[in-house]
Fold:
Amino acid sequence: MEKIKVTIWNENLHEKRIPEKMTHYPKGLHGAIAEALEVDAEFEIRIALMDEPENGLPDALLDDTDVLIWWGHMAHNDVSDRVAQKVVSRVWEGMGLIALHASHKSKPMRLLLGTDCKLKWRVANDSERVWVIEPSHPIAKGLPESFLIEHEEMYGERINYPRPDELIFISWYSGGEVGRTGNVWYRGNGRIFYFQPGHETFDALNNEYVRMVIRNAAHWVANK
Amino acid sequence: MEKIKVTIWNENLHEKRIPEKMTHYPKGLHGAIAEALEVDAEFEIRIALMDEPENGLPDALLDDTDVLIWWGHMAHNDVSDRVAQKVVSRVWEGMGLIALHASHKSKPMRLLLGTDCKLKWRVANDSERVWVIEPSHPIAKGLPESFLIEHEEMYGERINYPRPDELIFISWYSGGEVGRTGNVWYRGNGRIFYFQPGHETFDALNNEYVRMVIRNAAHWVANK
Amino acid sequence: MEKIKVTIWNENLHEKRIPEKMTHYPKGLHGAIAEALEVDAEFEIRIALMDEPENGLPDALLDDTDVLIWWGHMAHNDVSDRVAQKVVSRVWEGMGLIALHASHKSKPMRLLLGTDCKLKWRVANDSERVWVIEPSHPIAKGLPESFLIEHEEMYGERINYPRPDELIFISWYSGGEVGRTGNVWYRGNGRIFYFQPGHETFDALNNEYVRMVIRNAAHWVANK
Amino acid sequence: MEKIKVTIWNENLHEKRIPEKMTHYPKGLHGAIAEALEVDAEFEIRIALMDEPENGLPDALLDDTDVLIWWGHMAHNDVSDRVAQKVVSRVWEGMGLIALHASHKSKPMRLLLGTDCKLKWRVANDSERVWVIEPSHPIAKGLPESFLIEHEEMYGERINYPRPDELIFISWYSGGEVGRTGNVWYRGNGRIFYFQPGHETFDALNNEYVRMVIRNAAHWVANK
Structure:
């Protein structure tokens, strides 16, 4: 069986700057995402970190990547324009892209979506309930009708996205907001999935359903 | 100025069967909807009730209607197939249709949408916060980023709609659910807007923002 | 490997009434469609004909069908309402549906789409060039950028469809028209694909690319 | 009546470099577009040319523009990044944008759409027939079911656009191609309409239906 080559990209700054707050992710956010994928033998996993040469994404790696998972938050502008544009071009060619949490505002996502992706947000004690809008979509395979994330940063409407080509999840927040938190867009031959969970100081990336979504999405955006 | 001819159709059964519970709508649900529209001189308003001949919608009236507002809940099947199909044909020709509250399961809506429109629901003490997803849409004109409806029946996901052509509102419910509660579909030359508020024993149809949405939508689906 | 259970439904009237004109399809239109699928061992193929009991679709068969392929043209109304509604319900539950050629106006399709599906048509000497709009869609896998069908009935715009959820093919006709000829709609948990080729007196269903599309679509609407 | 402030932006290079070939547009392409709009007293028209300061679009003008019509072809990269980004931001805020002909590859359009907008093209003796896909859309108001443009550059599929939010026109070309030639996208609060006609050496911008579309679109993207 041909493997799906997944590259997990992490900004990897919180890990270095506030390690004392990263208790949920002792192996880094990239490590948690890798754990989510490792249970599925179909994935071949690679890690790319921003402070590596070429922001961790030399052409040889990017050209050999079926699915790129992106986690960035505090340093979107530290990614070089050249690397961001290369990611965009690879998506147009057919590479799948999964953008997690604050990565909606990453350079590649803003270039691909064509908006500033601004939204309403709050870091607080919110809990989040993720509702499945398209239960038959491959990304939602195996999920219950909704699932709870006990603590997450609130990302609510109105979110300045282009209209999603497919709306998979809508979240309810305990503070009174809602958000389109699982969205698909197509650009060129590539599939893009944005998924909201994944704040650095909460433990959503350890949630079994969040991990299931990431696995499902990695299969689906690979489009093999 | 040419008027927009709006026909308000009401099942008009709760008014007769449980008048003691209809305290918010002393003039009937159709009366409340008419009040919402009357402040705008551009509308010419007519009332049609189910127990009138041809379910209140003889050809002469329907053919002279620019916008049909539909409120039905307990007796969808008492509308004749012939009248339902005539409404559908008028939408195809260009008549606008606004379906309120439980009217998502009315005969015309199921025929136009092609699904059973099942959803999760609960009549309880829920409050509902309606969030504006497309602030620049004419239906959302003048609204704040969200507005509160203190009491409403919960209509939550997963709602078995066809994917909306335009998603205008998403609601948050105090009980933990979310719903796509303001949706546009196009069928033939006609514009269809579904809007969730309007339970017979709560007072949402007296809410100033709900009324604003109904007025905005009546202008927009008229497509003059 | 679990098989995909495909039921091919044919009106089977031209075969009986004008056999002399059915020279391209000596085994019937259903036979040609079956030939298209038989090269792929993943399909388990069944044939259902309209003049069989329950229009060929008893519950036991329909409930055991992953993908229903529909070919009807001259006798849409001879399918019973009960069978048509049962097909619709099965789509809502997740059965895939492929509607070929004139089947856009079949009872199940009109019930699922919510429009009359009228279009501009002409049986003449038109050739048709099918252009791929979404080359990365699984339905388009393996196709060139366009392919020629030497003779087909023209089905052109404006076609009274609801806006497709995905537009896969647009056709060019030698007579000067265009048509959205490969369209996806989602209804409930089911995927619907409409594909225009397949007139009874022309040989499009023997075309290698048409057959490839039908195979691709059968895999895709099965949504396993 | 409040006027709709329309700014017509032209690259204005062919006018200076190959005036002998610009016989259809003695007042420049911007002059032809202005003529299309002048018959409607609701428009207040301004002209902006690339070789003016700030590429013709100083903040004072852009901030006072309801609708920007863009015509560029040979020198997309001569527009400064700053001006392009300012146009993009104004669209997000609600300014309407109409991109004509080769302007699909202009800097603002590529930034807003998120793709490279590559397409198949040929300058030859093609005629083009534009088919109306959404006859009830305000942009199509007053049009016949199709109209002919006797000479145009062929812009055909597969066109690397993001899926249009609304598909208004599909064109047939005499050379055998088709194209999605009238498309709407929403970005932020702004409406974007792309329309394919307008090659510099053919006379499409003098065509009465092309002019009608531009007027309709200017009203519609203004979203007053």
